[in-house]
Amino acid sequence: MITLIKNNLDVDTYLKLRASVKWKKLSRTQAQKALDNSLFIVVAYDGKRPAGMGRIVGDGAVICYIQDLLVSPDYQGMGIGKRILQELRNYCLSIREPGTEMMLDLMCAKNREMFYIKHGFIARPTKNLGPGMIQYLDDTSNTI
Asked: How far is 83 from 28, CA to CA, in rounded Å?
């Protein structure tokens, strides 16, 4: 039975989950800071075994981002991602100021677009929205 636990994720489990889907390695300090600065975290467990997770980052008023939504390969296709996404979305709805609009954004992994489209997200670019963009900053980056 899969259970969802909110706002209780240790750095070792976080790094283990990221490694299970072969995402970029983070330093322990970087990972801990990411967890500490998250607005909301949800982790799916199969007993004591972590099966997936997701985080919300952002300002909590105008915009929130879904970050690190992942399901370990052994658990994919079981509806866990959908459950995590619902919890993340519900959190954002719960903090949204009544009468206002909040943007819920994400940058999905390649070939995962249909999962998000199925759950109401809009793929960019569109007629009115440009493409999402990214810039990686490292030790060789210069200021603009």
From this structure: 27
